[in-house]
Amino acid sequence: MRKTFIKTLIELAENDKSIYLLCGDIGFNVLEEFADKFPRQFINCGIAEQNMMGVAAGLAISGKKVYVYSIIPFVTVRCLEQIKNDVCFRNLDVKIVGYATGFSYGAQGTTHHAIEDVGILRSLPNMTILSPADLAEEKELILQSYQTKNPTYIRLDKGGKEKIYNLESDIIIAKPSVIKEGKDGVIIATGSSVEQGINIIKKLEQIGYDFKLISMHTLKPIDSSSLLKEIEGQKLVFTIEEHNVIGGLGSCVAEILLANGVNNVIFKSIGICDKYPDLVGEQDYLRVYCGIDEDSIYQQIIKRLKV
Questions:
Q1: Which residues are bridge partners to 15 per DSSP?
Q2: Which distant-in-sequence residues (6+ apart) come within 8 Å of 43 by Cβ?
Q3: Pairing of strands 186-189, 65-71
Q4: What does the alpha-carbon distance between residue 271 and residue 219 come to, in Å, rounded to a whole number?
Q5: I need a surface site. Which of 88, 137, 138, 197 has the fewest CB within 10 A?
Q6: Do the Cβ atoms of 244 and 254 come closer than 8 Å?
Q7: How far is CA 136 from the centre of its chain?
Q8: What is the rounded distance in angstroms from the CA atom of residue 15 to the CA atom of residue 187?
Q9: How many CA atoms are closer than 13 Å to the CA of 292, on its beta-carbon side?
């Protein structure tokens, strides 16, 4: 996904010399192309992410359009105070690009896991949060967010397939994208979990269930009326994500259902329990350990179907 980000940013920078890219001494073999083409618009701030966010704010105040790139924990939690006070408080045009969602860096341990970022940044006023599922969705969201002038967080998966689904409807920030229609329930997923949702729905079809699938590529803001319209008539609503169950996609959807008095659905948020894994391992291993692999999610849905 980071290669698509850089290619798209280069396309934009060809016609916009106000674009600046900042990094925290990371992204080698990916960011060089931008740095070579636009050396005066690229700054390696070193392993000093808090300072980097302050530099980004200063550039934005002077009229630059700034993109800040690093691994998710280092570009979000490490410099949260600067994001809050320097960027969001002033509502500056800074785009924070975080790489490697969830357990992408599983073997590196909790310091490199990205399982709280949405919940933390979603609480900051003025912040937009985007979580693309594939490269096609990613590019469209980057192009649309380029047109905005508020703080934006774009969370990128470490992998990223070119196109994992055929989307007939337009991809629009804040609006849910319907991947597949269905009448027996709806699965709402975000980021890398969308691919899981596709595979789970295929398994459900094999035993006679017809589920709807929604890609929630925008986690803030969410067009509540559009989401409620897509949920209308469904009795079962599931959210799946590689993020803490507190503060992420599940919380977003639950808040909307509660605020609008929707009480005629069975709702289940599937994500990482509110604890840190007490071991390390690759992403697939940690997904199984935390019960968010495809089979575990499938079994949780089947259990609800049989109630």
A1: none
A2: 20, 21, 22, 23, 55
A3: unpaired
A4: 15
A5: 88
A6: no
A7: 14
A8: 40
A9: 26
User: Which residue is associated with the tokens 């993020």?
Assistant: 243
Whether the pTM exceeds 0.85: the reply is: yes
Name the token pair of 153: 């967080």
CA geometry: angle 106, 3, 7, nearest 5 deg: 155
6's tokens: 């850089």
Q: Please provide the size of the chain in residues.
A: 307
Token pair for residue 175? 């609006």
Does residue 82 contact residue 57 with C-beta atoms inside 8 Å?
yes
User: pLDDT tens per residue, the chain (307 residues)?
Assistant: 889 999 999 999 999 999 999 999 987 788 999 999 999 999 999 999 999 999 999 999 999 999 999 999 999 999 999 999 999 999 999 999 999 999 999 999 999 999 999 999 999 999 999 999 999 899 999 999 999 999 999 999 987 666 776 665 579 999 999 999 999 999 999 999 999 999 999 999 999 999 999 999 999 999 999 999 999 999 999 999 999 999 999 999 999 999 999 989 999 999 999 999 888 999 999 999 999 999 999 999 999 987 6
Query: Domains (ranges, CATH) in the chain?
Result: 2-156 (3.40.50.970), 177-305 (3.40.50.920)
What does the alpha-carbon distance between residue 76 and residue 85 come to, in Å, rounded to a whole number? Answer: 13
State the Cα angle at 201 between 268 and 157, rounded to 5°.
80
